[in-house]
Every structure is written in structure tokens, then in C-alpha cells.
Hints:
Elements: H1 5-19, E1 25-30, E2 39-44, E3 49-55, H2 61-74, E4 84-88, E5 97-102, H3 113-125, E6 142-144, E7 147-149, H4 157-175, H5 185-192, H6 194-197, E8 207-209, E9 218-220, E10 226-228, E11 234-236, H7 239-247, H8 255-263, H9 267-289, H10 294-306
Antiparallel strand pairs: 1-2, 2-3, 3-5, 4-5, 6-7, 8-11, 9-10
Amino acid sequence: MTLPPPVASSVEAALEQHLGRPSTIESASPVGGGCINPSAKVATDTGDTFFLKWNPSSSPDMFHAEVDGLQALGKPRALRVPEVIGAGGSGTRENPGWLLMEFIPQGRPGPDYGRRLGLGLAALHSAVDPGGETGYGWGRDNFIGSLDQANDPRDAWPTFWHDLRLEPQLRMARDRGHFRGRRGQVLEELLSRLDEVMATAGEGGPALLHGDLWSGNYYPDSEGDPVLIDPAVYRGIGEVDLAMMELFGSFPRGLWEAYHDKRGIPPEYDAFRRDLYQLYYLLVHVNLFGGGYVGGSISAAERILRQF
Length: 308
Ligand code: ADP
């Protein structure tokens, strides 16, 4: 495939800085599986390979937020995260945004893949002082899919979950005409009772979260070690990452036990907090993909309120 010329020349400049010698791109082959950006495995004349993604239309801030997230996730050394080589561009056709990182080939999940991922995730969620700040939130805003994810810090977890997660997505969905029927009012009822619903939430936090841990955002490397990509990091509660992993599938075998042994998973998670944390991602899906997720969002809110 042919890379946009401004991306190719900026990438070569970044590679020269990274490798300490001039480097030209010999080939670029498309990599599938992403949701937003064209991406490629790039091979240089020196025989090195890298992973590159670019986008002529989305804000370059998206890639800068991803750099910030990958670097934060890599710091505790809990799980493998690709090393960032560089990012740039201005998000226009003439000068598309781009992000270059270490290429980590996909391997096969060994029998203990789920266990390794569970232990790594528990270690990530136990990282001390993530982001060098306190409270729930993050030092910068980022993105969930292509939507803005604001991270202004809050001292209390229920306040953060209300103000920065559920409420903005519900407002956006309503502005787009969703949840107009009588059943849709259950969402407002849930939001108004969040202090009660989340009275015991917040144990073990704030924890560094991946923030968008669907199955496309982790995979085994050639040694069978889990790799994390494409994060939407902030300091939250670890159960949020667990809930996202379970939203459209199930945990890899052994993950639950390994995570539970290290950090514990409280019974409230099973009882209603999985639904509470999945609700954010369901609302995001309503806003990204439309009405197909409205029924699931309402059912989740109804199940939660039935417990109170
Ligand atoms: P998008 O921003 O479009 O969602 P992703 O970051 O999810 O793109 O990447 C798209 C796909 O590329 C992933 O599903 C994965 O298979 C592959 N990929 C992502 N990062 C790397 C990497 N560092 N090395 C090798 N393959 C990668």
C-alpha cells in the first residue's frame, strides 16, 4: 500500500531520530482490525518493522491522547504495551495525523493466557500513584472511540461516574433523539439515585484503568504474553475494565480467578455494578452506532434499580 507522502516523510524523520541513523520505508502492508484509522506494518531498509496508523480527518489530538495513554500504561510494567516512537501531523488531507510505535506481532493464546492477563491487570490496577496525581480522573481529556472523554478530576467516585461518564453520554443520546419513550426515563431515575446505588463503590481506588478494554484492544504476543493497545486511560475503579471485558464476550479462561486472588472482586460487581459500568459503554455505543443499543441500556438500568 502507499502511505500519504507527508506521513511517509515525517515517519522517516521520526525513525532517523529513534534509530540514530537515516532510515527509509521499504514497504507498508495494511493491518486490519482497527475501528477508526487506516494502519500498516511498515518495514524499513534496515529490516526493522513498526506499526503506523494515520488519519486525514480526525483531530491529531486523538493520537497525542493515545501516546499519553500508552506511556502511562507502560510505566508500571504490569503488562506489555507497544513503545511509542513518535506522533505528528495536523489532521488534514495535506498533513494527516499519524502515530508510529513498536510492531508487536500477534501470537497464540497459551493455556495460561487468561491467568497472565488477570495477574497483569491486577498489577496495573494496583499501580501506586498513577499519573502522579490524586482523585478520580486524568491530567488531560482523551477519547472513547471517536467521542470525547472528559477527565476533570473528582474526589468522589460516584460523582466522577455521574458527572464525567454517564450524564454526558446520556445528554448526547437525548440530544440525538434517543430514550424519548416512557421506559427511557429509567436512565434519569438511575442518575438521580447514583449516590445510593454507588454508596459502597470506590473500594481499592483510584486505579489506573485501560479504559476501553474490549477484546480488540488486547492480544497475545508471540510468547503468549498479553499486550494492551488503544487505551482511554484515567484513574477509576478496576471493575470498569472488567465490565468492559465482559460486555460483548467473556473473560479469557482463568482471568477471573487470577484477578480475584490478587485484588478481590466484590459481590456487588456481580449483583449490579457490572451493569452500572457497562452502561457507560452502552451509552457510548448508542452515540456512536445508534438505536440498536438503546434497549440494552434501558434493561441494564432497570436491572440495577431492581436491586434497590
Ligand atoms: P484503531 O485506532 O483504528 O482502533 P487499533 O489501535 O485498534 O486501531 O489497531 C488496529 C489493529 O492493528 C489492532 O486490532 C491490532 O490487530 C493491530 N495493532 C495495533 N497496534 C499494534 C502494534 N503495536 N503492533 C502490531 N499490531 C498492532
